[in-house]
Amino acid sequence: MAIRDEIIDELLGSKEIKTQDDLFGQEGLLKQLSKQLMERLLEAEMTNHLGYYKHALEGRNGGNSRNGKTTKTVKTGNGTVAIAVPRDRESKFEPVLVEKRQSHLKGLDSQILALYAKGMTVRDIQDYLTELYGTEISRDLISTITDAVMEDVLEWRNRPLDNTYPIVFIDGFIGKCRVDKVVNNRTVYVVYGINMEGQKDVLGLYFNETEGAKFWLQVLTEIRNRGLENIFILCADGLKGLQESVEAAFPKAIFQTCIVHQVRNSLNYVPYNEKKAVAEDLKKIYGSSTIELAEQALDDFELTWNDKYPVIVKSWRNNWDKITPFLQFPPEIRRVIYTTNIVESLNNTLRKAVRNRGHFPTEDALLKVLYLAIKGVSKKWTMPIRDWKLALNRFAIMFPEHFADKAAT
After folding, report:
1. Angle 363-377/340-357 helices, nearest 10 degrees?
2. How many CB atoms lie within 10 A of CB 70?
3. What span, in angstroms and rounded, lies between the C-alpha atoms of 292 and 282?
4. 3-state helix, strand, coil in the chain (%, to 5)
C-alpha cells in the first residue's frame, strides 16, 4: 500500500529530519512511528474484543470494560520500543499483535533466522543486532528462536513426495560437527530432483561417515516410503554402493555418473598450464552427438594424453558404462542432466553457510542451517528449468507407462 505524499510531508514536517539518525536512530521518526502504530492497533484490538469504541455510550454498564494500560517493552527490527498495552477488567483481552509474555515481534524472528541461515553463530547474531539497533538480544532468546526451527526441519524431512521425479541428483560435501566432544568431518548428502513440472526440489539431507550399499538402500527406501515411485534418470558422483542400491530400489531408473564431477576429478591430475587443453579434449567426448563418436573421441584423447595422464584415461574407460547413458538422449535432455547450474548453485549456497560457521556443536545445528539456506534459495525456484518441455516430450516417448494417465485426460 502506497502512503500518500501529503502524509509523508506531514510526518517530516512535524520533526526536524536532517540526518539518518533522525530517521533511523534510537529516538528517530521510524521508531516513534512504530510505537504509535502498535499502540493504535492494540487499541483497535481492544475495541474489537469489547465490541464498542472507547467512551461509547453502549459500553456503559455493559459488563467488561477498559481498565487502563500497562507498559511493555518490545524488541523490534528497529530496536527496543516501549508501548502502552490496554487492559480489560476481566483480564480476558488476548492481543494478537503482541501476545502476552511476548517480548519481541515475529519480524525479528525472521531476521534472526536469516542471519543464522548465513552461517552466523548465536554470539555473532547477538553482536550484530546490538550494533545495528542498540538492542541487546539475549543469547537464550536467539537459541530459542533457532531451536524452534527443528520442528519445521522434521516436518520437512518427512513430508510426502511426488509420485514421479524424472531426474534426481545426489551430491555430497563435508561439514564439521562435534560428536562425543570431538570435532569430526560429516558428509552431508543432498538429494534433489526435477519434478514433472520442471521445478527443482530438495528431497532430503542425509548424514553419514562412510558411504556404502547399506546406507544408500536406507536412504532410497525412505524416499520410496515418502511416495516417490518413479525415477527416470539418477545422476550422481561415483559414490560407493549407490548404483547397486538404485538398481534394487528403483530398478527401471537409468544410473548416470555426473559429468561435471567426472571432468572435475579428471582435471585434478592436470597442472594449470594444461587444464584448458585437457578440458577441451574431454568436452569432445561428452559433447559428442552419438556414443560411437564419443568412443572415437576417447580413443583420440588416449593417444594425446595417455603418456602424461594415464589415470584419467583409466577412469573414463573403467566408468564408461556409467558415463555414457545420457548419450542415448537428445540434446535437450543431456543439458538438463549435466548442466552445472542445477547442481552447483545450490551446493555453493550450502557450502558457504557451512564454511562461515567452521564447525557445529551438533548434527542438528548443522541441519538447521542447511534447511534455512535451502528454504531461502528455493524461493527463487519459480520457473521450470531450461528446455523442460522438450525434455518432457522425449520422456513421454521413452517412458510411456508413466504418462498414460495424462494422455487419457
Report:
1. 140
2. 10
3. 15
4. 55, 20, 30
C-alpha span between 99 and 64 (Å, rounded) = 20
What would the grid cell of residue 229 be? 515411485
CB atoms within 10 A of CB 116: 24
Q: Which residue from 49, 75, 72 is spatially nearest to 62, judged by alpha carbons?
A: 49
In which residue ranges of the chain is pLDDT below 70? 1-16, 18, 20, 22-27, 29-30, 37, 58-62, 75-79, 96-97, 99, 101-108, 132-135, 209-210, 338-343, 404-409
Domain limits, the chain: 1-102, 104-147, 163-398
How do residues 109-156 score in pLDDT, each as one tens digit?
777 788 887 778 888 888 877 776 566 777 777 777 788 788 889 999
Angle at 145 between CA 144 and CA 149, to 5 degrees: 105
Listed in sequence order, the DSSP H helices in 1-93 are 5-13, 20-24, 29-50
The Cα-based distances of 345 to 158, 366, 374, 380 in angstroms read: 24, 19, 11, 11
Q: Is 181 left (phi over 0), alpha (psi -120 to 50) or beta?
A: left
pTM recorded for the entire structure: 0.71
Beta strands in 224-346 (DSSP E): 230-236, 254-257
The answer for residues whose C-beta is within 8 angstroms of residue 4's C-beta and 6 or more apart is none
Pairing of strands 254-257, 164-179: unpaired
pLDDT in tens, 306-315: 999 999 999 9
How far apart are alpha carbons 338 and 261 in whole angstroms?
Answer: 9
